[in-house]
Design goal:
The complex is a heterodimer. Chain A has eleven helices and no strands. Chain A is mostly helical. The two termini of chain A are 30 Å apart. Chain B contains 13 helices and no strands. Classes of the chains: A mainly alpha, B mainly alpha. Chains A and B meet through helix 1, helix 3, helix 4, helix 5 and helix 6 of A and helix 1, helix 2, helix 4, helix 5 and helix 6 of B.
Chain lengths: 265, 285
Amino acid sequence: MLVWSRPGRIVLWVLFALIFGVLFLAPLAVILLSSLADQWNGVLPNGLTTEHYTDVIGGAAWNSVKASLTTGFLASALALVSGTWAALSLRLQGPSLKRLLGLLFFIPSAVPSVSVGLGLLVAFSHPPLLLNGTIAIVMIAHFVLISAFTFGNVSAGLARLSPDFEQVASSLGARPAYRLWHVTLPLLAPYLVAAFGLSFALSMGELGATVMVYPPGWVTLPVSIFSLTDRGDIFAGAALTMILVAATLVLLLGLERITKRATGA
Amino acid sequence: MSEAIALRAPAIRREPGKFWIVPPAALLALLFFYPLALIARQAFLDDSGVANPAEIISVLHSRFFLNALINTVTISVSATAGCLIVGLVLALILAFVPFPGSGFIARLIDTFIALPTFLVTLAFTFLYGSAGMLNAGLMETFSLPLPPVDFLYSTWGVVLAEVTVYTPFILRPLLAAFSLVDRGQIEAASVLGARPFRIVRQVILPAAIPALIAGGSLCLLLTVNEFGIVLFIGAKGVITLPLLIYGKAIQESAYQVACIIAVVNIALSLGLFGLYRFAAGRLGV
């Protein structure tokens, strides 16, 4: 306790509530309110309605929910496999190669997503690899952007793992494949689930690269929200944003529960 | 037993597993580094494969590029400064003047990391836009003819939105650093009559500096690359480098110009990434 006097503490708590309210609480509350607003001309909406949600769910926007979930799932799954593979096989390298490759696997997280999209357009717009205008290029963009985070999470998990278990297994005669499947991966499981959850959340909100490469017919949620608000339909945009937030949070909470059950905590 | 383990450890390293790194590395090379190299190639060479310094110089001297560069730097430096101040104030209260439910609030702020950045901009249009709650309230109360609050569609609107979005990235390492500060030291200082401000300056801040530097350079990197917030604000005068790349490539199909700007943006980002890695590695955050 840093401040002992009660009035002093209350002043600080009011300051905290003010900052927290203005910066974090108000935006979420206002998006929720506007997604339910009938008309909004004054300080508060004139009435509440669920019309925007029914519009959004009935309309083409529902397709973007499916596009986002599919893209998020496939890109995160691929990133999980490649990130785990990279983190595991990096342990077998010499120290200098390990440092260099570790850095290279991190770099996609530092490059602006719009540039990742631009690069994919420049690279895959002609044969032999003509991917421009396909769904695959959206998946690839998401995979590239989230792969660094998966790699980072799994590497951090591996670093925290005690090497004893693997060494005991190996001294008991477990072959590398058996050891990987029955010792290392189960121990890593909580980190893998966390990495998958973060990847999925990042993919659901990705806008910069997607807006560069998406084909008509595969419009993800953020792109769809942008085109709705850009057309002036901000209430529908807010409703779709709430769906995005809810989907992301449900997913993260669900994965957290799985991790807790797996670790027995 | 410990000797046996020490002898076994190098044996694991000598297993023929070195080439397992090839598949993920090849995937990364094909999908990330190859496109990146093509951006650089297209920036420096024209379609016939000849270097074109004139085009590069004209883009780098153009008003739209310089404006975007200045905007990007101004926004990211101001937003990072804002994040550092807000993050420090929030972290100090959460860690040293806790209230019932402060742990839950800290976790709630944490989940903002997982939410899309443009959400905040969208909310700000409802809050501070020309027909937003704040303006409507002020106009009703003081019967004003015009909306009095007009910062949203400017650089400052973007800065405020970015402060909201990126403060959690400062708060998280700060709270971790503060949890290691010796409470006894603070209590001793305060029993000896040191005022809270002095304790913060002399005891708490020195412990927080590594987290502030690492978090700050991460914020700089993320704000330089930020796209969604600026796109959603949609203000004509607020064009940053990522937005300019998008505009040139998608709206004007000027791929070469887009690639030249992208090279500058990527160089800036990689520089900041290097700074972040250096700071984080050096300070052990």
